[in-house]
Design brief:
Length: about 80
């Protein structure tokens, strides 16, 4: 039984410590702010995943691209 939940809303109002994975598809302008929040609140071992946009101040150590014309997934595992 999956315990996955999808939440559409303002990420600033969420406590990221409650989640094992946070998936973001935001504008590039928001990526630094989401990184600051994730690095403060997410537990060690949890993951931040971004579709299409890397974080300027924290380049992703894992980049996944399934095809030549598909957007990249940027993955960070929190320490």
């Amino acid at each position: 039984v999956s315990q996955a939940r999808f939440i559409l809303g303002n990420y600033e109002k969420l406590n990221f410590a409650e989640y094992d994975i946070v998936f973001a598809y935001l504008s590039p302008a928001a990526m630094s702010a989401i990184w600051q929040k994730a690095s403060k609140e997410m537990r060690p071992g949890s993951m931040l995943i971004s579709l299409e946009f890397d974080i300027p101040d924290a380049a992703s150590p894992h980049i996944i691209q399934t095809g030549k014309s598909t957007p990249k997934l940027f993955v960070w595992r929190m320490a």
